[in-house]
Amino acid sequence: MPPVGQLPCGVMNVSANYETDQHLKTRQSIWAYGAAGPLPARVLDLVAVPETALVVDVGCGNGNYLGELRRRGHRGPMLGLDLSPGMAAAAATASGASTAVADAQFLPVRTAVGRLTLAPHMLYHVPDIPLALAEIRRITAPGGRAAIVLNSLQHTHEIDALLAAVTTDLLGRPVTMVWEGKRFRSDRADELLPTVFDDVEKHDLGWVATVTSAAAVRGYVESIPASGFAVPDDRRAEVLTEFERRVAAHIAAAGSFPVTSGAVAYVCG
Fold it and tell me: Which residues belong to any copy of the Methyltransferase type domain (predicted)?
């Protein structure tokens, strides 16, 4: 019997930043620098998933986690859910999994069917985070696990510091990224997750990417929605050009520009 039921999907607006996976791919590419290895593989190493079990990826994005499961030979059903039709389509193409457009606050999945429920880097997009967590708990089978991935307060702090310095010099005031990713981080998750799940294991998976391309660091900032980097439109190019110049100078002097990934994984049951 398929896991998808007839529960209602809530209505939310998909940000233009997520209509396709172009901007997400740009942000993901910066983490290829360094020796930590792909994050989906490191997260999946934390959970034992029977090879025939149902896996539900809530907020599946462009399918990196589902694709990693497929590479590992997972033979069970995999369902990717995302609010963005473009992301759901990209995930299906990347992994071969079944995907659907759905709101994390009202998952169209029957209760207690998933052996593993994934929620990687997505909760900070959801208006009602406790409701989404309750839904993740609801669809996870007894004895199953939910793997939730967020960022710590240290995530990309080097970029923030340099942006603040550049905008102070050019605009007379510091501007840093204030986009959705900062809305719900590990400090808040430490408090909230134990109120939803009986068992919460926290794993610090952070590392420092040593980026050797100034263009890649600039691309990361450019991929952030304009609302998350509040520089006047007529000064944005100037700020980004000076930012890239200073990153390039740092790379020329030190060999690379450090960018901290504050990835934190919670394995909950």
Answer: 56-148
pLDDT in tens, 168-216: 999 999 998 876 778 899 999 999 999 999 999 999 999 999 999 999 9
Q: Measuring CA to CA, which residue among 256, 263, 251, 217 is closest to residue 38?
A: 263
* DSSP assigned state of 7: P
Does residue 172 lie in a domain region?
A: yes
Q: In angstroms, rounded to a whole number, what is the distance separating the alpha carbons of residues 133 and 146?
A: 10
C-alpha–C-alpha distance, residues 35 and 185, integer Å: 24
Instruction: Please count the structural domains in the chain.
Output: 1
CATH number at residue 76: 3.40.50.150
DSSP-based three-state secondary structure for 146: strand
Give domain status of residue 8, yes or no. no
Cα–Cα distance, 34 to 253 (Å, whole number): 18
